[in-house]
Write a sequence for this structure.
């Protein structure tokens, strides 16, 4: 896979981050060493494509969140918006707020859309050593193919 300009290179350490989720719980990538981590950037809560994707992850949560895998969904929405969204959607996974400084983590991963002020639909799979093993950016307005993400998780888990 070729890495688009601005994305962290596959095979190198993934950018670390510390963000709070929709319940105020802090999450730090480095604290998840030993398991596969899926960092799933999404543009906005309460939108059709994002709701469809995150609903697909929630419907297959055992695959995306288990003893060996943790999925972190990241948006530039405020933590309050993410809490209200999850109160209605009941997704069962952490929704991390990259609100302030606005989009700093999305920018570190090369997926901040400066014109729209949101994260692009980027997906990153990080191995248990903190190394980025797979990435993909799906165009705005299109849902990412979750079967491809599941295959990437399986590939990383077999390393």
């Amino acid at each position: 896979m070729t890495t688009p300009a601005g994305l962290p290179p596959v095979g190198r350490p993934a950018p670390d981050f510390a963000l709070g989720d929709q319940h105020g719980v802090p999450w730090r990538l480095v604290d998840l060493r030993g398991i596969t981590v899926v960092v799933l950037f999404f543009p906005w809560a309460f939108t059709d494509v994002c709701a469809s994707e995150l609903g697909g992850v929630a419907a297959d949560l055992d695959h995306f969140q288990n003893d060996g895998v943790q999925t972190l969904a990241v948006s530039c929405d405020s933590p309050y918006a993410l809490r209200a969204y999850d109160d209605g959607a009941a997704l069962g996974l952490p929704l991390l707020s990259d609100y302030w400084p606005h989009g700093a983590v999305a920018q570190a991963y090369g997926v901040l859309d400066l014109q729209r002020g949101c994260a692009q639909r980027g997906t990153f799979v990080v191995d248990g050593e903190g190394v980025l093993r797979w990435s993909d950016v799906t165009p705005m307005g299109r849902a990412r193919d979750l079967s491809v993400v599941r295959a990437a998780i399986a590939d990383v888990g077999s390393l």
The longest helix spans residues 48-59.
